[in-house]
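#onboarding

Welcome to the new folks! Below is a worked example of what a typical request in this channel looks like: someone posts a single protein sequence, and someone else replies with the predicted structure as tokens. Don't worry about understanding the tokens yet, we'll cover that in week two.

Example request:
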Amino acid sequence: MSARERALKYISWSDIVEISAKLSHEVSKKFRPDVIVAIAKGGLIPARIVLEFLGVDEVGFVEVKFYKSIGVTVEKPYIKSMSVPPITGKNVLVVDDVVDSGRTMQLVVQVLSAQKPLEVKTLALYVKPWSTFIPDFYYAVVSEWIVFPWEVCEALKEGVIVDHEEYRKYSAYCSPR
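Example response:
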């Protein structure tokens, strides 16, 4: 299915903050992370918001490549780069925007677990119903392709017709590359 034919769900900046706040509150009742690790690129912004609400000082990221374009993946996810503070003996919360197949989150948890953290928990704003991995914390299960405000230009490059007032505003600033 092409980018133009997919069912889309647009998420606003205020929705992102509200969802992140609710998830952070849920995390705080059950888990006390020492370190937050964002899955880049999609998890960078949610991770920053969650660490603010949880009062966590240590943050890292793992950049994973899996998608070539909307709905098109490479054979398996691979780690492109990573910068994580020492996590041995610490509680780690891994954050991403969406868990689709679940393979990216599984890879990151596996790689981090080799560093012997005390415990690793996972959080995603959204989960797809076909995912083989269900995060410990998530907001909703959705089957639409989600377009976040931080990826408007990427969506346009993929042929998505931006049909959302807030997003159309941002799209005027996208580089024509």
